[in-house]
Amino acid sequence: MIATKHCATSALALLLQDQPLSPGKVALAWAAAVGPTMDRVTNVSFGSGGTLTVQATNRHWAREIHRSTPLIMSRVNRLLGEHVVTTISVSSPGPRGDGIS
User: Fold this and answer.
1) Which of 9, 39, 57, 75 could link 31 by a cystine bridge, Cβ 3.0 to 4.6 Å?
2) What is the tally of structural domains in the chain?
3) 88 to each of 6, 28, 69, how far by Cα in Å?
4) What pTM does this model have?
């Protein structure tokens, strides 16, 4: 028997595989990979060279994303395609407005 969460991810990957890489496709893959709570507290964009840039609303969420980067990257790449995302860059507003990585 296949768990529902794996079935849904596989179905989503099949639907996305033939679609061109776009901001909407990246946002959908991000939301599916991290879940609704983390999606709500982040903004993502995909840049050249395979870098997924994540802007978290605060330092707490930036730390959590940074800590979970290997898992998140594998989930996002399962949806977007192998080795599409090569790096995840995380930042958040600091006490004086500066970001963290």
Assistant:
1) 39
2) 1
3) 23, 16, 7
4) 0.82
